[in-house]
Amino acid sequence: MAYLPGVGRELVKAAMTAPFLERNEEKALAVAWKEQGDRGALHKLAAAHMRLVIALAARFRHYGLPLADLVQEGHVGLLEAAARFAPERDVRFSTYASWWIRASIQDYVLRNWSIVRGGTSSSQKALFFNLRRLRAKLARAPQASAAGDAFQAIANAIGVSRSDVEMMNARLAGSDISLNSQLIDDDASGSAERMDFLVDNQPLPDEIVEETVDSDRRARWLADALAVLSERELRIVRERRLNENLVTLESLGDRLGISKERVRQIESRALGKLRRALTRIQNDPAGP
User: Fold this and answer.
1) Residue range 163-211, pLDDT digits in tens
2) Any idea what DSSP says for residue 247?
3) In degrees rounded to 5, what are phi and psi of residue 247?
4) Longest Cα pair distance anywhere in the chain, in angstroms?
5) Distances (CA, A) of 140 to 129, 133, 150, 199
6) What range does the domain containing 55 cover?
7) What is the CATH number of the domain that holds 87?
8) Three-state SS for 182?
9) Which of 176, 195, 220 is the last residue of a domain?
10) How many CB atoms lie within 10 A of CB 118?
């Protein structure tokens, strides 16, 4: 195994010089660790398979993450495999450990490739890690088709929707950009940042507070003004002006046993009284 940038030479050297284990020796080490908790046996078992960890980690280099971190996560998967391995089964440890190493590295890539959390379902993981390969395979095919058909072919192969493929393709095509990054790449002080051009249509905090205070004040003014109305005037104003489901003059007249014209007259008089009461309350220096 050649030296890999980002991985210490000593680690690679140790992995390359670690002896291969025969099946019986491998099983004996696994039994010693599982049944006796022999840490020396665990160390020998893990050291003999570090070359496998490095080889699997190298396959994920194109995601832009430090190779040393990928190897470290793969080592975590290796130790997890050692803890779960059943020596009594007729399976080589490397075959069993490969799944755990790959799964640990994939989880690390999904957590750290982007600050935006990707899908965690098995189908979304398969789409994330196989999209580039399937897209390249379709591009090399003699019957290579349009992009839209390629997306559908990938969706059918992985078992996801075409929209999921299109979304993942867009995510893999771009990269994270900080909102605090400068639009002009220089060291000039006061350069505009991307954050400066984000538009928020929501009201400012002081506007929200002002509107809340004004709403409470208006509610108190209206409650005080309604107190000047008679019982029948108050009912007509509520039914005709203040309720969500407003009633007609005719239906309200039927309820009160008067004509709709009489309802209109009472309503008009009550509104006049309200206007005068509200004007008086607003102009009263000692008012609310």
Assistant:
1) 777 666 666 666 656 666 676 665 555 567 777 777 777 887 888 888 8
2) P
3) -105, 160
4) 105
5) 19, 11, 12, 44
6) 1-113
7) 1.20.120.1810
8) strand
9) 176
10) 15
Tokens encoding 79: 């130790």
Residue 21 sits in the same domain as residue 109 = yes
By residue count, the chain amounts to 288
Please state the three-class secondary structure of 78-142 as a single string: HHHHHHHCCCCCCCCHHHHHHHHHHHHHHHHHHHHCCCCCCCCCHHHHHHHHHHHHHHHHHHHCC
| In-domain check, residue 200 | no
Tell me the C-alpha distance between 224 and 221, whole Å.
5
Claim to verify: residue 219 and residue 266 sit in the same structural domain: yes
Rounded-to-integer distance, Cα 11 and Cα 51, Å = 9
CA torsion, points 78, 128, 121, 109, in degrees to nearest 10? Answer: 40
Q: What pTM, to 2 d.p., does this model score?
A: 0.51
Query: Any idea which of 31-40, 90-99, 107-116, 219-228 has the lowest mean pLDDT?
Result: 107-116
